[in-house]
UniProtKB/TrEMBL annotation:
UniProt name for this protein: DNA-binding helix-turn-helix protein
Entry keyword set: DNA-binding
UniProt key word Isomerase: no
Record-linked PROSITE patterns: HTH_CROC1
Naturally occurring in which organism (per UniProt): Leptospira interrogans str. 2002000626
Length: 126
C-alpha cells in the first residue's frame, strides 16, 4: 500500500503522546497495532512515513481517531501555569498509568473538598 503524506513531526509527537497515555512501551504498541518495534520507533522519530493502513491500525490500537494521530493541532491541550515547577509535575501525569492518575485525582479532590469546607466555615463564622 502506498505511503500517506503526513507531517512526520506531528505524527511522531502525537504517536508518542498517545502511546504514553496508554502507558505502553513501543513494543506493546507494535504488538497491538500488528507492526514491528522498528517501525514504531522509526515513526516516533520521524524517520518513516507510514501507509494509511498502518495509521489506521495504530489509531485503532491507541483508541484515537486518525485525525488525532496526524493532526498538527496541540493534542495535549497544554495549559500555561505561572508556577513552572508545578507545570512540569502536571506534564508527568501523561506517563502515569490510569490507576495512578485516578489516585492523583482522588488526592486532588480531597484537597479541594477540604478547601471548600474551610471556606464555608470561614463564611459562617466557624
Amino acid at each position: 500500500m502506498k505511503a500517506a503524506k503526513f507531517k512526520e513531526d506531528a505524527l511522531a509527537k502525537n504517536l508518542k503522546l498517545f502511546r504514553k497515555k496508554k502507558n505502553w512501551s513501543q513494543t506493546e504498541l507494535a504488538k497491538n497495532a500488528g507492526t514491528t518495534l522498528t517501525h514504531i520507533n522509526r515513526l516516533e522519530t520521524g524517520k518513516s512515513n507510514p501507509s494509511i493502513e498502518i495509521v489506521q491500525k495504530i489509531a485503532l490500537a491507541l483508541e484515537v481517531s486518525i485525525d488525532d494521530l496526524v493532526s498538527q493541532n496541540d493534542n495535549s491541550k497544554e495549559i500555561k501555569f505561572e508556577n513552572q515547577a508545578f507545570y512540569e509535575k502536571i506534564k508527568l501525569l501523561d506517563t502515569f498509568s490510569e490507576e495512578e492518575r485516578n489516585a492523583v485525582n482522588i488526592v486532588i479532590d480531597s484537597i479541594l473538598t477540604k478547601k471548600k469546607m474551610l471556606n464555608l466555615l470561614k463564611e459562617h463564622g466557624g
